[in-house]
Sequence to fold (706 residues):
Amino acid sequence: MTTALELDPYLLPLPLPTSPVIPTALVVAHAHLNSAYADPVWLMAPLTDKPSASKLAVHWKNCPAVFQDEVRLIAWNMINGQLRPTHLKARGNRLRSRLSPVGTVDTVRWWSHFATWLTKRGITSLADCDFAVLHDYGMHLRDKYTSREYVKKWLAALTRLWAFDQLSARPAGIARPPWDELGADDYLPSATSTTGGENDVEPLAEQTMGPLLVRAIRMIDDFADDILGAWDESQQLVEAARTNPTTPAGREVLMAYLTPLLNEHAPLPSSMNQGKTSLARQYISGVTGASRADLEWAVQRHDLVAIVGQRPGPCPLDIPVTGLVDGQPWREKIDFNEVASLRRHLGTAAFIVLAFLTGMRPDEVLGLRSGCCPDPTPAKDGTVGRHLIRGHEYKTATDEDGNYAASGAERDVPWVAITPVVRSIRVLERMVPAGHLLLDHDAHDQCQRSDTGSLKISGLRTRIEDFIAWSNAEAEAQGITGEIIPPDPHGNVGTERFRRSLAWHIARRPNGLVALAIQYGHLRTTFVSEGYASRSRDGIHELIDMETVLAVADTVSELHESLEAGEGVSGPAARRAITTATHAALFTGTVITATTARRLLANEDAMIYDNPQALVLCHYRREQALCHRDDAKDTPSLDHCVPGCGNIVRTDQHAARLRQRADTIDKRAAATPQPVGDRLRTNANILRAIADHHDRTRITRQETAA
Fold:
């Protein structure tokens, strides 16, 4: 006899209390953590081996008891089954057949919230959830939350509850949600100008990101060798302290070390233990070769615990300090007690450089492994290509059925690495075993509880704030106050803001901060001309496009306001710029998405770029651009602005700033020896001549209208 299950392969049998929550075919890691159906907690760890993934779980205590049996069965169906293709096709593939581990946990959490809402209304079964009840709940969500995208996800989760109940061997009987049948618009909050996801994250302020990146690069370039050398020595001392045998010679060396310190009332090597000063036993035992028993004998004999409380001293390591700050060593000696903290900050600095100067998402950085960026092989003609980074993508990774691939997928096109990125990878490769994750949890958190995979994003947020605090204290102590990292006006740095900040800096400050200008220039070249980490304009390209259009909108709006106030412009493209500024409303009220950004970028007449360092505007046309004559591009190379270009526009404000810059140069020339001073004065006169030419040739909007 043919059963219903055989007729419909999408229907699932009833699970037993001991049935595994995750089917064997979907287990990719941590198989030993697979939960049983009746367990109070369902672990999602077997579904993913993504290095940065947190150990997610479904906690059934959060679901009202009267609904647990019904919701638990539907959740098991969701994990073990998949939606029918006809169901997906009818909804334009708005739903995935299977969810990611994060999506699974979120969905069950939303179901539990829904069940809690039902119990407050006196409803104790999904069978009583008819069209009217679901309509009321949809209205409740609309009125409670302001985020349209958030409510849309919540409604989709409830649609999934109904859909998987249909595939159950014991359906609860919940009704089809009205938003699935009639559309969701009536159940969603009003639309806003936000685009969702990382595009809504505020970029880091220039005054914060500049010093932060400078300090991170300094950490890699100037301090890494000293820190890693100190770490190696400290580990040797720790191992020696653990294994030193008890011998007469060891006790003799120990007393030869301690006696001068005691006789001269000098400080004793100390450490902080739970906020209290204590004798640095590991350090003393390591440097003297004494055993723990020998050292304990000396502690009791000479009352060293009481003495160190009165005279705590440092624990200097015997390695030379080579890193320099303004020509001076950044430390006289590295202390045994600070090595672990310094190494932690070094790993954080490497993450900051990678996250900011590659355009990778945080989980993509955390998924990189030692050996991911080999040195390029020289060609036969001796030329050496760029360093390429091989790694995984996670956000957009799907399997052959179009479902989310929790373990990610290797990128078809690698990232291209500029020099600071390569140096950061090389430092991380010295910190982890070969083939391991560059930010392996056990290698970077040796004093914490063991874990699998990489450092977690939540922990990195704390590490970055700690790095900023430490860097500021160091900069203050070293007298380099120009490298102090000020707070960002939008809050903590976090990890998600680096990608958006990179796009912002490339679009708006390609030749801004002197220390970073060459990097931004290289990055724009890399991204735009080399198909950076993508075969099409998505990913980081979308962010750069959007930031570029947002910057242009600001520039056009400011030009419009100044022209309305009677100010003038000069330059070969002045009349074109006036025409564009007159139509500034083109950007007004436009929600800047990746699609609208590409459309506006293709409209050359609408795009005016600001170059505050060159003190010009660029009304870009490819055929007239001198910034890249050999290879015309869609946008200007503002770090290669060429005087005399037919796209240049100069405003009254630019002329005023040219004269201010000339006055500043004159002041420098007055305090500079004659040959250099003469050159500075010549440059100042050139700037004033450009400003005078603007005054003679400027035109206004009113003049062009007449």
